[in-house]
Structure formats: C-alpha cells, structure tokens
Amino acid sequence: MNETKLEVRDLRVRFAGRDGMVDAVRDVSFTLGREKLAIVGESGSGKSTVGRSLLKLHPPSARVEASVMRFGDIDLLGADERTMRAIRGQRMSMIMQDPKYSLNPVMRVGDQVAEALRAHRRIAGREARARVVGMFEAVRIRDPERVYDSFPHEISGGMGQRVMIAMMLITEPEVVIADEPTSALDVSVRMQVLEVLDELITQRGLGLVFISHDLNLVRAFCDRVLVMYAGRVVESIAASELEHAQHPYTRALLSAVPDMDRRRASLPVLQRDPRWLAA
User: Fold this and answer.
1) What angle do CA 164, 15, 17 make, to 5 degrees?
2) How many domains are there within the chain?
3) pLDDT digits over 131-144, tens only?
4) What pLDDT sits at residue 1?
5) pTM score, whole prediction
6) Cα within 13 Å of Cα(50), Cβ side
C-alpha cells in the first residue's frame, strides 16, 4: 500500500514587495506517497518555494496559507517551532543544491554529518563516527575514513553531494526534499549520484520531492511530475507519459530541450500566453 506521507491542498505563499504582497505560489495541491515526485519549471516558477514551505523555512514576513498541509498526522501549518525542529532533519530532510555553499568550510565533513545525527539521536562520539562511516559506504564513498577527516575543499563536487545525501539520510527520515541536487555536477557524476539516491530511497521506502528544471532527468528518474508556471501547477502527469503532456507550457518546455539525434537550426523560443496566469 502506498501510504500518503504528505498532503497539500491550496498552498499559497506570499512575500512582501515594494507595492504590497506578491504571490510566489498560488493554489498548489498534491500528495506524496512512497514515490519520487518531481516539481519542474523555469527559475522563479515557485518550485523551491513549495519545498521550503513544507519545512517552514521562509522568513516570518512570508505568508503561508493552505486548506491542508499535513505530514502524516501533523498539521504543518499549525505546528509550532518546537514541533518543526523535531521534524526538520529527522523526519523530513532537504538536500540543497550545491555542497560548496551547504557545507561548513572550517569543519571536517564527517563531523558535520555526525553533528546532524547527534542533533536528533543520543549517540556518543565513537558510535556516531561509526554510523557516519557506514553511511558514507552506503552512498558509495570510497575510503570513507579518509573522507570523514577531510574538509569540504579537499573533496570533489560529486563527493560533496554524496556527503550531503548521507547527512540528510543518516537520521532515517520519511520524506526527502531534493532541491536541484545534481545541477552543479557533470553528466557522468550526476548519474552516479542519482543512482545512489534512487537505491536508498527505494530500499527505505521514502517519499522524495525532487525539484528540478531538467525535464529529461525527471522523465528517467521520477514517477510523477508537477509542472509549475508563475507559481501555479499547470499540469500533473506520470513521468513516463511526459512526452504526451497536453498543456502548451509543458509542450513548449519539451520542444526547447536539445535533441542529440535531431539537428535543428535553432531551438524554439517559449511564447507565454497571459491566459495561463488565470486558468
């Protein structure tokens, strides 16, 4: 049975602008079970704003409203900060985009992962180290003892992203939000990291929210796709059926993807329709 881990209905997020409140997300609804759900769209479409709303990571000036925003039996909208601290990192984790900016440059990477573990588990230093080394092995880091004692600048981008995956999964969360986790990596390393993430998500029966702008990637990696435009979900479709998408915005995004097997003089320019904002 594919139990529902997250339920979101009519999510709206607004930020204070120079001329009043500005809608960043409007009427977004979805559920998440034991699956890989992609949220795709151009920069500024609101996809990362949705992910951060689930963990209540927006500044106090932001207004987050929804008919339902539930994680298991917890009402996320009504949850106080103490409840959210118990959820963040332990039951719901977020993998950030670039390890260069997410890892502390003056701490050894292993100590940073151990710190995340000790924040949610009563584990002594030696046991924490053993758990981290074991997790490094699970994400296919060679020579995990050496990597544990390395600083972020001493490891590659792909290795750093594996460290970030280890940090987010070592507390055994139920839901993982991955915000463009491979965009800073080259293609070969990207596929290796995705293979590791896919294996761990499947083995542990987790729910994954995968935020991306790469349609080819999510088509191969995810189960379902939400396509966002100007803060709204304009189409929800199975990833395997993405080629048959109906909304003109989704079709335009697909047509703008380069195809190595079909040479074109130029890629089409996306023509936006004002009606998409009101539909």
Assistant:
1) 125
2) 1
3) 999 999 988 888 99
4) 45
5) 0.89
6) 37
